[in-house]
Fold this protein.
Amino acid sequence: MFRPCPPSKYGIKRPSSHLKSCPTDLQAEVLIQRSVSANSIIGLVCETDSNLRQVKQLLLNWKGTPPVCSTRPHFFEQSYVRDLVRSGHDIRIAVRED
């Protein structure tokens, strides 16, 4: 996931300015064995205010401190995220501080 030129039919290359914490190919998937505990989720990002309202309704039944929720439409635009990551800029989102 972090190779300079991972196997890809699109010939993706990792520039030297690429954000170190992100995979070379932004389409890379992270596979998790078993599950992620609910209390490990510290933030949720929604594309629209409508989505945010739905998520907040679901979180009313959350046991413990719920994750921080925010709306960031640009986060869902591939070119926005790709350009920030490739230029080495972190994407700030609101998260629960433990």
About this structure: Helices lie at 49-58, 78-86. Strands lie at 43-46, 68-71.
